[in-house]
Amino acid sequence: MILGAIADDLTGATDLSLILSRNGMRVVQVIGVPDTLDAVAQQADAVVVALKSRTNPAGEAIEMSLDAARALQAAGARQLFFKYCSTFDSTDEGNIGPVAAALMTHLGIDRTIACPSFPENGRTVYKGHLFVFDQLISDSPMKDHPLTPMRDPDLVRVLSRQTTRPVRLVPHETVRTGANAIEAAISEEPGICIVDAICDDDLRTIGRAVAGLPLVTGGSAVAMGLPDVYRETGWITSAAPGDGFVAPEGHGVILAGSCSAMTRRQIAAARKAGAPALHLDALEIASGATTIDAVAAFVEAEAPRSKLPPLVFSSADPDVVAKAQAELGRMRAGEVVEELLAGVAARLAGRGFTRFLSAGGETSGAIVAALGTSALRIGPEIDPGVPWVSALDTERPLCLALKSGNFGSETFFMKAWEMLA
Ligand code: ADP
Predict the structure, then answer these.
(1) Are residues 214 and 294 in the same domain?
(2) Is 242 among the domain residues?
(3) What is the pTM assigned to this prediction?
(4) Is there a domain that residue 44 lies in?
(5) H or E stretch covering 81
(6) Which of 284, 335, 337, 339 to mutate for ligand 1's pocket (most ligand atoms within 8 Å of CB)?
(7) Counting atoms of ligand 1 from 1, which one is nearest the CA of 315?
(8) Distances (CA, A) of 332 to 285, 295, 321, 328
(9) Which residues in the chain show pLDDT less than 50?
């Protein structure tokens, strides 16, 4: 392993994993901090530890991040990367500043950068100000985020409120001059440098400038320049995106618990294309009328006789969801569906199913937990942001595609299966 990354949430970890993978690194994503990363470190150039620390109290976020840092270092990481959201999601209490500062103290260093820029997604930093497409972040919908409202666009000011470490700007004029100029600006004095970046070329130049720093902090895009330098240094050879991913033979299933508009379109498209489908109703699950046994039996019966895998979905129109929530409560309605889908996944894995596609962020979390895996090799990307992954820590080989509700194109389910053919 060369790069050890700590991501403050799961989707952010996948995002970073994909950027590293696209740029030729073999990547394993780990959910939570295991006792040891030695086994996975041998199979990867980069290990990305996915935490759930973005909105925890700062002290907790620091502890989790330091645990991850220690595990990554013990497994041989030569450089650490602290990954947060490209909208710099944080409050005056943290967690970006406190975690970055704690990692610096842990590593015994006094210089790093902070660069959330992600031009492909419309996030740029200019004169230290964060933009979301054409708006300052403080004018964007992020100003009203329920947990981390961003009301100040000046990142030097924002970060200065979160840490006692000095914070200063490396302006775009310096970035444009090149990697040496950026490196010189960073080494000038101790502190955390907010680095301007308005396009991918800037990020690649910054990557070159910071490849020698023990710690880099930023959005996932600032990592895109690192693999080139590792290759030139001879630390890695080039891997094609998804190298090392093997789809095990066996039956598959699609489990959808997302009610998002895109997932519902994907379901409609898969049904039209002939996928055998079973619709679940939250109230029937709660009453015991729909059981794991019955749903798993449907999938087992249909899988051998269909080209597309069976599709089990609870996804429904907002009025149907509202009715279930009114009767069961919002949380309970979500839980009964998640528990059923996760139970079906576990049952099918026990019966030899090897390929699982799940739709929905929470749904995917429940299914991954039920399948008992927390180390995932990043495979080929199906649609932007969603790769096939293979489990490295299950008794029998499994591959999974975990999709957030709104991700993927309308034909995502078919496309995912074609990729395994
Ligand atoms: P997304 O990524 O689209 O947000 P999630 O899986 O994160 O999808 O969230 C969807 C939530 O809705 C889950 O908790 C799921 O169990 C719940 N849910 C799914 N179908 C229904 C339904 N028919 N009635 C009530 N809740 C549902």
Answers:
(1) no
(2) no
(3) 0.91
(4) yes
(5) strand 79-83
(6) 337
(7) 20
(8) 11, 20, 12, 6
(9) none
Do 51 and 167 lie in a common domain? yes
Identity of residue 367: I
- Whether residue 72 is contained in a domain is answered as yes
Residues contacting 9, CB < 8 A, separation 6+: 50, 51, 52, 53, 54, 85
pLDDT score recorded for residue 357: 98
Closest C-alpha residue for ligand 1 atom 17: 334
How many domains, the chain?
2
Claim to verify: residue 313 and residue 369 sit in the same structural domain: yes
Domain range spanning residue 138? 3-232
Q: Which of 9, 10, 258 to mutate to test the pocket of ligand 1 (most atoms within 8 A of CB)?
A: 258
Question: Which region, left, alpha or beta, applies to residue 316 given φ > 0 means left and ψ of -120 to 50 means alpha?
Answer: beta
Q: DSSP for 283-345?
A: HHHHHTSS-HHHHHHHHHHHGGG-SSPPEEE----HHHHHHHHHHH-HHHHHHHHHHHHHHHH
* Token pair in block for residue 119: 């031009």
The pLDDT assigned to 35 comes to: 87
Single-letter code of the amino acid located at 337: V
Pair 261, 211 in one domain: no
Quick one: 280 and 184 in the same domain? no
Helix (H, G, I), strand (E, B) or coil at 91: strand
Closest residue by Cα to atom 16, ligand 1, is: 334
Ligand 1 cavity residues, CB under 6 Å? 257-260, 282, 314-316, 320-321, 324-325, 333-334, 337-338, 360-363, 404-405
Q: Is residue 289 part of a domain?
A: yes
Q: Are 44 and 102 members of one domain?
A: yes
Q: Does residue 127 contact residue 169 with C-beta atoms inside 8 Å?
A: yes
DSSP string spanning 346-398? HHHHHTT--EEEEESHHHHHHHHHHHT--EEEEEEEEETTEEEEEESSSSS--
Identify the helix (H) or strand (E) that includes residue 67.
helix 58-74
Q: What is the pLDDT of residue 243?
A: 83
Nearest to 97 by CA among 13, 9, 160: 160
